[in-house]
Design goal:
The chain is an alpha+beta fold and about 450 residues long. The chain folds into 4 domains: about 120 residues, no CATH class; about 55 residues; about 150 residues, no CATH class; about 80 residues. The protein has 15 helices and 11 strands. The strands form 4 sheets. Strands 9-6-5-10-11 form a 5-stranded mixed sheet, with helices on both faces. A two-stranded antiparallel ribbon has the order 1-2. Strands 3-4 form a two-stranded antiparallel sheet. Strand 7 and strand 8 form a beta hairpin. It is elongated.
Length: about 450
């Protein structure tokens, strides 16, 4: 005798749950002693089959209920609705594809028909959860990589998960997120923060636009100093709670400024808040920072040491000139800008090549333009105060650089990239994606 099992799908009336109205066997098999890790579970194919069977029956029952609820009177002319056959339609969920049957009803007077396809009924043929997963994968991976990942976890090649569909879903949900943020007029009340840290950065991305080699995507990350945590003595700190904004729209920075203000308010920005803002020195970054000044109590603007030091290190000069240039870093580290500028001027007199002089002068102009934002970095480090954006750089990497930079063949349009930036910003912001993905899915075109 062999022990077996079966999984039964039942429907019942809640007034008498002990008496099934209908029973369908979804899956059955024998139970044998496992010999290895491959036969211990019921297996992926049977798991998909189980989900498929349950879902088929649930969808069938829901459509029967829908047909039962349709009244006999036409909503347009009050004529009589009559049955006119059934229509098969397709529906796609996370792991399974389904063919469902709609009962069709038509008005005898004006020919009005009730919805008889999934698209007519729901506006889409995909479940909300499938669209959510496609959008997340599309924002984090290439569309073809996303297609391969979904194929692997579904156990089969499904046309609903092809890269074109993933691109379409990602863009529509990203655009819906952008509208949700722009129209957000109510933010849950939270205690005002005593201090917040704001990092604003940009990155140039190759573009498909005519006559343009690149376009600039901008990001902002805002968080409280109390959100900075350390993994251990041997690893870098990380941010436990933050809100982000991103945009590549050609709209005079309206979207990035609006998104940054909303992100700051969600982190507790108020009239008592002191904002420490760090930027790489670009004017468009400081424009975003200044938009927060009327909303906070006070503000300290700092030329980010990470970008300052990197810019200095990347200046290509002969060995002797480079050594003297790097010595100027000592003065900048201590906030002695005047001495640094004087030494840069002296360095230009020692350089003989026009290209070297131009590079030194360019760095001189950079320091001069940001003179009032260069602080005593050494002192800030001593007292544990923020002076660099390196903590936020991993977020910038995730928001802009992944899929957008470093792969020379990839070129983007603003319309194609901006929706992905909105999804990425939501994914990296505290509670944003969890709270908004359902609304975005329902509002997606």
């Amino acid at each position: 005798m062999t022990k077996c099992y079966r999984v039964i799908f039942q429907t019942y009336d809640d007034s008498n749950p002990q008496k099934p109205l209908n029973e369908v066997c979804i899956i059955e098999s024998d139970i044998r002693s496992p010999t290895n890790c491959l036969d211990f579970s019921i297996g992926m194919n049977n798991q998909i089959k189980l989900i498929q069977g349950v879902q088929d029956n649930v969808l069938d029952e829901k459509l029967k209920t829908l047909a039962d609820e349709i009244i006999n009177t036409c909503p347009h002319c009050e004529g009589k609705l009559v049955k006119c056959g059934k229509e098969q339609s397709t529906f796609h969920d996370v792991f399974t594809d389904h063919r469902v049957n709609f009962q069709r009803f038509r008005c005898m007077e004006c020919s009005y028909e009730t919805p008889y396809t999934v698209r007519q009924l729901l506006g889409t043929v995909q479940s909300g959860e499938l669209q959510k997963i496609q959008a997340e994968l599309g924002a984090r991976h290439t569309y073809r990589e996303s297609e391969q990942l979904l194929e692997m976890f579904s156990g089969t090649d499904r046309y609903i998960n092809n890269h074109d569909r993933i691109k379409q879903v990602s863009e529509s949900i990203g655009n819906a997120l952008s509208k949700i943020v722009a129209e957000e007029n109510e933010i849950a009340a939270i205690p005002e923060a005593g201090e917040l840290i704001l990092n604003v950065d940009g990155g140039h991305i190759k573009t498909t636009e005519n006559g343009q080699r690149s376009m600039e995507a901008m990001t902002s990350v805002i968080y409280s100093p109390s959100a900075i945590q350390a993994n251990s003595k041997d690893t870098r700190n990380y941010i436990t709670s933050k809100n982000c904004a991103a945009s590549v729209s050609d709209d005079s920075q309206k979207e990035i400024i609006c998104g940054t203000i909303i992100a700051a308010l969600k982190q507790g920005l108020g009239k008592i808040t002191h904002v420490t803002a760090l930027c790489d020195g670009a004017g468009n970054c400081w424009n975003v920072v200044e938009a927060l000044r009327p909303l906070c109590g006070s503000m300290t603007c700092i030329l980010d040491w990470f970008h300052l030091a990197m810019k200095l290190e990347n200046i290509s000069l002969p060995e002797k000139l480079k050594e003297k240039l790097l010595n100027i870093k000592w003065h900048l580290w201590r906030g002695d800008v005047d001495t640094a500028l004087t030494k840069l001027e002296q360095l230009t007199t020692e350089a003989k090549d026009e290209k070297h002089i131009e590079r030194i002068n360019k760095f001189h102009t950079y320091i001069k333009n940001n003179k009032d934002k260069i602080v005593n970095y050494c002192e800030r480090e001593k007292y544990g105060l923020v002076f660099t954006s390196n903590l936020a750089e991993s977020t910038v990497e995730s928001l802009i650089n992944i899929r957008c930079k470093g792969k020379q063949h990839m070129r983007w349009s603003r319309e194609g990239l901006n929706p992905l930036l909105q999804i990425r910003a939501a994914l990296h912001s505290k509670g944003e994606w969890i709270n908004k993905w359902q609304t975005a899915v329902l509002n997606a075109a």
